[in-house]
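INFO  loader      accepted 1 record
INFO  loader      residues=891
INFO  predictor   begin
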Amino acid sequence: MFWRKRERDLDRELRDHLELEAQEGGDRRPLGNIALIKEDVRQAWGWMWLDRLAQDLRYAARMLRRSPGFTAVAVLSLALGIGANTALFSALDAVLWKSIPVRNPRELRILTWVRSDKTPLHSYTGYNDFNPKTGQRLSGSFSYPTYRAYRDKISQFRDVMAFSGNQFTVTAKGTSEYANGQFVSGNYFTGLGVDPAAGRILIPEDDAAGKPPVAVITYRYWERRFGLDPKAIGSTIAINQATVTVIGVTPPAFQGLFPGAAIDLFVPMSMVPSVAPRWYSLTDPYNWWVEIFARLRTGSSEASASSAAQTLLAGLIENYAGPPNANVETPRLLLQPGARGIARFGNGQRQPLYTLAAVVVAVLLIACVNLANLLLARSEARRREMAVRLSIGAGRGRLIRQLLTESLMLSGLAAAAGALLAKPLLRLVIAMMAGTGSLTLDARMDSRTLLFAVCASIFTSLLFGAFPAFRATRVDLTPALKDAGAVVLKSGSPRRLGGVLVAAQVAFSIVLLAGAGLFVRTLINLMNVNLGIHTDHLLSFQTDASRIGYGGQRLADLYGELRAKLESIPGVASVGMSHQTLLRGSVTNSGFYIPGRQSRSRRFKTVYLLLCSDSFLSTMRIPILLGRDLSRGDSPGSPPVAVVNETFVREYLNGENALGQTLVLGEAQRPKPDDERLEIVGVAKDAHYSSVRNDPPPTAYLSYRQQEHELLQQMTFNMRTNLPPLAIASAVRNVVSQVDPNLPIAEMRTMDDQVSESIHTERLFASLVSGFGIAAALLAAIGLFGVMAYAVARRSREIGIRLALGATTGKVRWMVLRESVAIVLVGLAVGVPSAFGLSRLVESMLYGVRPHDASSFGAAAVLMVLIGAAAAWIPARRASKVDPMTALRCE
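INFO  predictor   done
INFO  writer      dumping tokens
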């Protein structure tokens, strides 16, 4: 570097001058002190601070090397806090703050509208959002004709892009599987400014009728399905049996406009007629399924763009011929900022992240308090050193800077260790956020995350290292220089301050331990929920033959054939089918009424529907309490029937006999002649339908063979086995392949695994909070141990006198333990009420346990007392073994 060259030049010049001085003897004026000359020159250059910084760093490194125990404890405790906060920052950054990786994301706007029952549509597919500030429920889908009008007629917009999510059956390399895809407009990638990682992106010419079908796959899908094989570009795959050419791969960071959505591929909108579900339409103005992004044109205001879009939408609705609803209104249009895409993580997924963030901040505070305590104790041990340095002319500011440099070095080492620790912690947080859904989190250790770690380390070192540094340099020189400095030190405020800091650690720890107790009890309660089904020896998988061309009676017959072949597999006792998979959060519900019965409640009556086979209830071991089960005789030509559960009878029939009652699927306020009427022929015991956490809803089991074939698509096959369920997995795959090689198999797993996965988030969250709670308690124990060990060392002369005067070792131990217990009790006095107040904030995350659960708080308090007693036992034992004569001779 330049300054080093200047240093070398200065050294060479001084050396030449000294050589000339030696040759000429006394004829040349002597230079004097070379070190002072060099310091004066450096001061003139303005680089003296670099020299001093290097000196401070070298000295700090030597001091930390001389105290390896102190350094290890300080670095490891801070590393835990900084690493955990770095991991959570990365996750929060991905969910809340990070912009999507496109060109100029702040220019993007999302077109949304305020939901109303009078919106003129008859089919809706898209996302819903709730604005807690306004109380509005927003939707973001439009008809395709509306998108084209916005694209062509709103001059304030440029790059108006459309997309819609869907799930495809993709056949590649001889195997079929489900893939999450999106239909996109031809200008989708060019408008966003996304360049391909390989191949090319879609262009507007690809999105035209008659053009060869093409697809762009994501980097994630390229890696998972094709092993990053370059030959995948240009290869053909089948999407819902349509032959498609793969033309390119998106960059690794780009996952579409839904952050968190695990997208696999993109296809142009022109492919909707050939591969989309029947209710997607490029011409129907009442079918709202397209989501729209746009960029504001330079010079256009947001208000004018919104007004123009609102006016155009009103005109389009007015021109609709024969709206399906007589009383319609134009929904109010809103433009939402699109820099972060469309939020995919709802409050139910964000709250665990917020709670975990609060937990790790508390852990960092405890670690920082620990550092302050250690530095305070270390400063007392270095009183004589500080006194000597002050007495020979060192400035107090110079010493404070030196001590802060040591603190910064500790925090820097902790930040480096914390960055390493953050990687596995981040993987756990991502797994917790993703749960069992098709979500992915673009959270990684990037420059923003590393910058956060550096800033956190600097902040902690300056905030919690400044006070010990100022205190260490405030020394009364005469007593400190007289003091031998080893054992006998004055008691006073440092010890009291250390006790206050430890009490603060205990308070934080009790909050975390109590919270951990609540979440562990929640997990235990969820694991012990009576699901109403026997989960042992059950194997399930999903398939959807409607995606590969089957429909109507042909689809129903295919599922019946597959069921019969599965039942013939050795070891399979029975096979039950349902159109929804239990405990996966997916539901189908409908309004209903029972003729002749007046509802006591004005709320809209809904019933959860499960289309299933006649053997479903018996396979799942859900008992029939009254009447009969569905049977093979419930065919398309026989009267439609239903089996309802206990909750339905209790809530809607007041516990009366349900058999023979008529269940009409529709709205009592607006009955229609074609409303489906079913006779209730049985009552089944309650069973959990959508999740372990939710109580069984009012449910009706309907025969899939009697329902309209348009509703029949995906089917889940549940097999009760006499063998370990996974032992027949290969036989199941062979049978499915025999029926149709293109049939995809998704999510083949045992029911026990399915139940376990349904509480995956709760299990991982309870583990993380418990781990951090125990770590916090251990950090508090380390702080308590340090304070008590330091107190024993300071009071060794007093303890020696007590022992010399006849005090027993038991009394000495109790004297030390009593002081530590007092510190813990002070912490409990602050921590327990704080935990009581904060527990209300996580009430929605609990299950089967109250926020003020006495057992959780009591267990946390007892555990903290035991940890505190264990931490103080070694100093107490050491105090009882002080040799009175040695202690007295130290004076």
